[in-house]
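Pipeline run #58 for the internal structure catalog. This entry was flagged by the ingest filter as a single-chain record with no existing model, so it goes straight to prediction. Upstream metadata was stripped on purpose; only the residue string is passed forward. Reviewer on rotation: M.T. Logging verbosity set to normal.
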Amino acid sequence: MLSNLSFAQMAIVISLSIIPSFILLFLILYSDRKNREPVPLIIISVISGLFTISLSLLIDKIFLKLNISNDILLSYNNYNIFKIIILASVEEFSKWFVLYIFLSHNSSYDDIYDGFVYSSIISLSFALTETIMYVFSETAFQDMTNLAILRNITSVPLHIVCGIIMGYNISLVKFSKYKKNKMFKLSKSLLIPIFVHSLYNLFFSILSFRNINNYISVVIMVLFIMGIYVLGCLYILETVVLNKIFMNNLIYDKDYDYLMTRQEFLMRRSNK
């Protein structure tokens, strides 16, 4: 497969596959330059893609053995809604598992913005690993480059936006004053990304299996992806605003009056 590629072609494929992700990684870390995270936790986040991909593949194999593909309520034309939701669920759960179990309880996770940093890097690592797997499963140079470009403008941003939503909601849980409704808030950190990811999978499945004019497909795809971008930007802005209030020990409005200030957080941590 790879032996058919020249050195120059291989360099182009590798560059298209990984450079955009490394640029995004740099931007994420640069945005947190005033309160840098510990290198070991960043490394865990960066290499988590291998773990999360392995975990998702394992769970996929278990769930997709269920033979329900002929269920009329779950099938539409040539794709299965159950499988679409399961695929999205296991991928988001894999990322959520690393973020919540391994990182959110760490003492270095000490402000609301950290949720954005860690979850974005975990999601980026997952997306990059997945992109490399898919790109190098192709045999033709043109197919490899086209797939790398397509994933960098669709799938990679989708994963990052789902991670941003996840990190935002986990931060709301971590810095909450009260235990009341904690499980509900925690469930949102997983269920909302699953919903967005499932919607993405369903949308592109419809475009793939329906006979839609190529021009119309491109327009629809661009509009949909722009919507994903806007959603991610809105969550980032909300995260930045809440973190500024948190860091400056200001009073939250009534919608977020359950959140601690940084001073309250540090006092509670020192009393443990």
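catalog note: The two ends are 57 Å apart (CA to CA).
catalog note: The chain has nine helices and two strands.
status: ready for reviewer M.T.
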